[in-house]
Design a protein that fits this description.
35% strand; 166 residues
Length: 166
C-alpha cells in the first residue's frame, strides 16, 4: 500500500491568488467636536443619553484599490442641554487581491472597516477626553451584521419603491 498524502498543501493554480489586503494609507477626512454648553456641560449631573451612529461607505480608486470611509457620530445630551456632539470621518486606502468579484463588495464593506475601526475608536476617545469628558470607548462593532442590516434595508427600500405608483 502506498501513501499518496505528502502532507503538504495542494499548490494553487496560476491566477488563483490567495485573498489579500494591504492598507496603503489611513487618514482623518473630517473631525468635529462641539461642546456648546461648556463649562456648564462639564459639571457633574445626570447621566447623559448617548446616541451613536456608524456608517460605512466605499469607492473604487483603481482596479484593486478602494477607499473605505467609516463615519462615527456621537451625541451626548441631558434633558436640559447638549453636552457634546462629535463626528469623525476616517478613511483608509486598501489594495485587495485574490478576492472573486462576486465577494468583493462584502469583503470591502466588512473587512476593511474592521481593520481601521480601532484607529477611529482611539481618535474618538481622545477627542472626547480632550473635550473635558471621560473618554468615549465604543464597543467593538460587528461589521458583518451591520452589512447584513444595510443590505436588508436597501432591499426593502427597493421593494417599496417598486410598489409605489408613479
Amino acid at each position: 500500500m502506498t501513501d499518496t498524502n505528502d502532507g503538504g498543501a495542494q499548490p494553487q493554480a496560476e491566477g488563483d491568488a490567495a485573498p489579500g489586503m494591504h492598507i496603503l494609507g489611513q487618514y482623518i477626512k473630517d473631525l468635529s467636536f462641539e461642546n456648546p454648553n461648556a463649562p456648564r456641560s462639564l459639571a457633574q449631573g445626570e447621566q447623559p443619553k448617548l446616541d451613536i451612529n456608524v456608517n460605512v461607505g466605499a469607492q473604487q480608486m483603481g482596479d484593486d484599490q478602494f477607499e473605505v470611509v467609516l463615519t462615527l457620530t456621537a451625541k451626548a445630551e441631558r434633558p436640559d442641554m447638549v453636552m457634546f456632539n462629535v463626528e469623525l470621518v476616517y478613511a483608509g486606502i486598501f489594495k485587495i487581491t485574490g478576492v472573486p468579484k462576486e465577494h468583493m463588495h462584502p469583503f470591502v464593506m466588512i473587512e476593511c472597516p474592521r481593520m481601521i475601526f480601532p484607529f477611529a475608536r482611539n481618535i474618538l476617545s481622545e477627542a472626547t477626553r480632550n473635550g473635558g469628558f471621560p473618554p468615549l470607548m465604543l464597543d467593538p462593532i460587528d461589521f458583518a451584521q451591520l452589512y447584513r442590516q444595510n443590505m436588508a434595508q436597501q432591499a426593502a427600500a427597493q421593494q417599496t419603491g417598486e410598489q409605489k405608483p408613479n
